[in-house]
Design brief:
- The protein is mainly α and 475 residues long.
- The chain has helices at 10-21, 24-36, 40-68, 72-80, 82-118, 127-136, 144-148, 151-167, 170-197, 202-210, 219-232, 239-244, 253-286, 297-309, 312-349, 353-373, 379-382, 392-419, 421-429, 439-469, 471-474.
- It has one domain: Orthogonal Bundle (Hydantoin permease), CATH 1.10.4160.
- The radius of gyration is 22 Å and the shape is globular.
- Bound molecules: phenylalanine (PHE).
- Phenylalanine binds at residues 20-21, 23-26, 98, 231-232, 234, 239, 333, 336-337.
Length: 475
């Protein structure tokens, strides 16, 4: 049998797993969620979720993957039999759906990068209408230029880059790409923050971001924090299980997970520190007290307007770098999402990596077409009757969020009831000789046995009730 491949070592694994974690979730979602949910209060809840729930789940996932040495389905199936195998298949399916919408949004960012760096996006005056027009420009067949500027092409190119990298294998493709993109990503982020902090009114943005507003503390803040933490750390669907299966036995899992979590959280935190000074600079320029920062408008409407205010040259440089950053963050995550089903077909069906990478990329691209069409072009998808009139993109992303916390909960149950904590501990003591006598072992065993399954179970049910019926009306 051909070898499955593995990571070259600790640095490669950590950068790659952090690459999966750092993505659109950090740069686009985290800042506006924090802004909407009381700034530092949200940050606090988020950190609480990471310590108590995400850290143990991530350790569990990676150790299952490394122990079994297989894809998500294969790992559950090998350690728990075919019934648990379904949990693996569920995760793989969720991954496919996440990638289907994630790639569309990544395509938008890629389109904006091209429009700012090589086009004249910065001479626009109304970015809100531009965005509305842009997302609905799906396939323009009237001219070659129109075609090249369609979302169909942006998203297809993004998916092709993903397939190209995944097709090259673990070390030569995935690890190599992450080793290049991740350091650049950090560098760009730091540069933009330093610049943003020098702008007029920047400190007002920092205050808004960091001073807790306890009035905003609602039960939904906890739901949002938990969903965001799971999504941001790529948990609950088998990404890290799959990556873990390529990890060598002498690597220390708990300490790598700590580094990965810190890397991810710091990028989310820094993204807020980049965005809010910029937003408050804009408020100052326009002499308004508030600009809308919720949802997609933040990076696709508000930020371009800010780059416009910076003037043609500086706006091009900062705006271009910003969207390059978003593209790198997104690409390191799409790679990890595609790897989940690819590993499944390679391990279970013995298919060739390159072939399945391109085949699955095509399939998932097609699954993304309704997402593109849901932004206005097809009214039925734009306003889903059964989902409070929200669009298909919101629906599918909400469903995936819920699946992640449910998947995390079931994984803990799997470890405790099927695989057994003893086996997990044995796996964790490889590469970490002091583990068995450590406090960390007690902490992990306690959280995985009691805290995570119970809390994740209760919260998942509450999130589902809230999504479909509104939690206030039920309780
Ligand atoms: N963690 C990624 C982000 O924050 C998204 C992701 C979710 C990637 C699940 C892989 C698996 O953008």
């Amino acid at each position: 049998m051909a070898t499955r491949g593995n990571f070259s070592g600790r640095v490669g694994f950590i950068l790659t797993a952090a690459g999966s974690a750092v993505g659109l979730g950090n740069i686009w979602k985290f800042p506006y969620l924090a802004g909407q949910n009381g700034g530092a209060v949200f940050l606090f809840i988020y950190l609480f979720c990471i310590f108590l729930l995400c850290y143990p789940v991530m350790v569990g996932e990676i150790s299952i993957g490394r122990h079994a040495g297989l894809d998500a389905y294969g790992s559950y199936n090998k350690l728990g039999g075919p019934r648990w195998g379904y949990l693996g298949l569920f995760g793989i399916t969720v991954g496919v759906f996440i990638l289907s919408f994630y790639n569309v949004v990544a395509g938008w960012a890629f389109g904006y990068f091209l429009h700012i760096s090589f086009g004249d996006l910065l001479s626009e005056t109304d970015y809100s209408s531009f965005f509305g027009f842009f997302v609905n420009d799906i396939l323009d067949l009237t001219s070659a230029e129109g075609l090249a500027n369609s979302n169909f092409i942006f998203s297809a190119v993004f998916m092709a880059m993903t397939a190209l990298i995944v097709g090259r294998g673990i070390q030569k493709g995935i690890e190599a790409a992450n080793k290049i993109m991740m350091p650049i990503l950090y560098l760009i982020l730091i540069c933009i923050i330093v610049y943003a902090l020098t702008l007029p009114n920047a400190m007002s943005g920092v205050r808004y971001y960091l001073i807790p507003d306890l009035g905003e503390l609602k039960i939904q803040t906890l739901f949002e924090g938990l969903k965001q933490a799971f999504f941001s750390l790529s948990l609950g669907m088998g990404t890290l299980m799959t990556y873990g299966s390529y990890l060598k036995k002498n690597e220390n899992i708990p300490s790598s997970v700590a580094v990965i979590s810190i890397a991810d959280t710091s990028v989310a935190f820094l993204a807020g520190l980049m965005v809010f000074p910029l937003v408050h600079f804009l408020q100052y320029k326009l002499q308004v007290t508030e600009v809308a920062t919720a949802g997609p408008p933040l990076i696709f409407i508000v930020l371009p307007q800010i780059f416009h205010e910076m003037g043609p040259l500086l706006g091009k440089v900062i705006g271009g770098l910003f969207f390059l950053l978003v593209c790198f963050a997104a690409l390191t995550s799409t790679i990890s999402l595609l790897e989940v089903p690819v590993a499944y077909l390679v391990d279970q069906k013995k298919m060739r990596r390159r072939v399945v990478s391109w085949g699955l990329a095509l399939l998932i691209f097609v699954l993304g077409l309704p997402v593109m069409a849901s932004q206005g072009m097809v009214p039925a998808l734009n306003k889903l009757a059964f989902y409070k009139g929200q669009d298909y993109l919101v629906f599918i992303s909400d469903m995936c969020d819920i699946s992640l916390t449910v998947g995390g909960c079931l994984m803990c149950i799997f470890v405790v009831r099927q695989w057994k904590l003893k086996n997990m501990n044995e796996e964790l003591s490889l590469g970490n000789p002091g583990y068995n006598a450590s406090f960390l072992k007690k902490y992990l065993n306690f959280t995985i046995q009691y805290v995570c399954p119970v809390l994740l179970g209760i919260l998942s049910i509450m999130i589902i009730i809230d999504k479909f019926f509104g939690i206030e009306r039920v309780f």
